[in-house]
Write the structure tokens for this entry.
Amino acid sequence: MSRMALEGVKVIEWGEYVSAPFCARTLADMGADVLKVEHPRGDRSRRHGPFPGDVPHREQSGLYLALNANKRGITLNPSKATGRAILLRLLESADVLVEDQGASFVDGLGLDYVSLKERFPRLIVASLTPYGRTGPYRDYKGHDLSANAAGGISFGNGTPQREPLVVPAAQVSFMAGLGAALATVMALVAREATGRGQLVDVAEAQVVGVLLTGYHLPTYIYKGIPGYRAGNRFRLGLYPNCVLPCKDGYVCINCPQMEQYQRFLALLGNPEWTNNPRYRDRRAMTEQYPDEAEGLIIPWFMEHTKEEIFALCREHRIPCVPVQTIQEVVHDEHLASRSYFQELGHPDAGRLTYPGPPYRFSATPWGLRLPAPTLGQHNREVLCDLLGYIPDDLPRLRAAGVI
Amino acid sequence: MQEGSGPLAGVRVVDFTWALAGPGCTLFLGMLGAEVIKVETAQYPDAMRRGAYSVSGDLDSSPTFNSANLNKLGLRLNLRRPEGVQIIKRLVAVSDVVVENFRLGVMDRIGLGYQVLRQVNPTLVMASSCAFGSTGPWRELAGYANVFNAMSGMGSITGYQDGPPTELRDSIDMRVGTNLTFAVLAALYHRQRTGVGQYIDHAAAEAITRHLGDAVMDYAMNQRVTPRRGNRDPLMAPHGCYPCKENDTWLSLAVGTDDEWRALCLVLGRPDLAADPRFADGAARWAQQAELDSIIGAWTCQRDARQAMQELQEAGVAAIPSFSAKDLFEDPHLRARGVWQDVEHPKLGTTHVQVPPWRLSATPASVRRHGPLLGGDNDYVLCQVLGMGAGEVERLAGQQVFE
């Protein structure tokens, strides 16, 4: 196998649920050597599911398995003095610590960045917290839902008469993890030049906040609109640009170029209404009377299935695609031809399909190499082989709640 | 004119990206110190300069374009002229990275595909991002954020439980851009350590599908197709967005533990609920969430969203208003974290832009300049970077190479 892009980078992950584990997983996929340090009660995602047959089992939770492949894992409780000592020994040979523990908590344990920096000047610490390590909300509690709200993303998702909507499946936490992985590699690049590590402070809510810069903020500052929920459509620009129902589901169409729109009208058979000047102003159709405009084209969509529409639109080069269900995505022929989904075995959960690489590098591979660790799977390997404990120490450490 | 600072100081990026996803990547690279030269043609200037995005109709007055292209230098070039293509080759020879997000095949047709550019610069890192990647049956389809979101599977699970999929794009482009940035940085780190450059095939739809962890696992384990769940969580309850006193203001609130539940009951003034066996644990509360939603909604609708947030957070409940763009702009926490920065723009005056949501303590990101005017930096690029004399520039201008 060729050398991987992050080969030799040693990462200690001290976190749970989605954001910190996804950060470390993203690094691991590119070759980093990740050791997951898990509280003896187990990562919260082990209780999340989904489980085969809906029977809860800490080694069979889908969310845990997906987020923790390519890692080794030990149990450790750094709230105990011995646990803390073990963590510090592990950090001696680490390049990166990814943690989501909260500023006040790590300060209380003497594991704050200033102390870590003194002992390990080359260490990069990626800290993921709901609102960041500074500012008035730094100690506020947050879940993925809160990060959606505080990042401004839910206010713009949904319909105007109804409540704002979260973007589902812990998307903001995934984004925060990806952002932290990006910043960690940035810190690695910087370290090559300076020889020194640094603190990466990631505010999960802000990761989505920054993503809205492009649209919402200028709309507020220049047009005074504080944000809006436009349901199935985008409220600016050229018609059509929306999600529409069809015979057996939904499709999404977006035709920014005039030629695309003309080809779409030709596909509809250039109906009579296309001669009406009211329906020639595509911006007004979007911004002033979208219901009316949709009424003109929905009947055609309702006569066809997703598959028929997609085939016709491919042929006529119109950007219009099905809103694919998860089942359709897993069986998508395009993704299959790119070997996107990959299978991996696990001692308790068996062989399962996992999402694959979002990028293909010509020289360095992306790899699904190891299944997620079972709880404490590598305790002996790490504590005895690496840190010099003897096997007889382990029951004592376990009884003391350290591992 | 671009003084070297930041971890990517000395890295030069030739940027062919347009719209938002690609420019998001080069925006982040530029904020980290890279010198980004954005190449545009007069015939097809970036779509974000045009139409509804421009506040006064001209190509240099789009706040959205400005936000997505801060720090970049503007090179206007006619790529239909062989001299234009030649200039790019000279530029790539003295650069480190090329990023582009045209439809598949466009760079090859211009004569600037990876196979050509690697001859010019053998250690080049080049990333091509298109909707569906460079292989597979859908590789040539055009795609925009809502289109690849629909295909990714994410679109089908986003929406109210009883409604159609909502149209989502605000964050989709920048999720793709963040993913692309991670890939480019990993390749740069690899080059830094080995001297080997490479090509990155990046598929926007796959970048979104990558975040579908548990939905894919549920299908793999149980052949179950994840539905739209609105604001509901598979485990947590209460978990929702509740109306507050002012019109269109909302409080997002999630309860993940029994402690949080008891704290919520106290703030609501309902200790009876904490003692009620019908709500005794997470599973029980999940089963009764409709009733809990109405109890909480009755309390929030009497209150100001921020006051409710403070009261609940002081008690340890994860509650935060669903911020609009206006709220984000005025939020004291984001102000305290220095999220907004003022940048002077020759046409727009003082603009308010955002710095990245990840903070590097030793090598912070920086906003040094407004987004480029169309062709605003031709002189710098041609004369300073490529060392052309005034005579050569004039001769090329006479041949419409900069039109």
Observations:
- Chain A is about 40% helix and 15% strand.
- The first strand of chain A starts at residue 10 and ends at 14.
- Residues 241-324 of chain A form a domain with the formyl-coa transferase, domain 3 fold (CATH 3.30.1540.10).
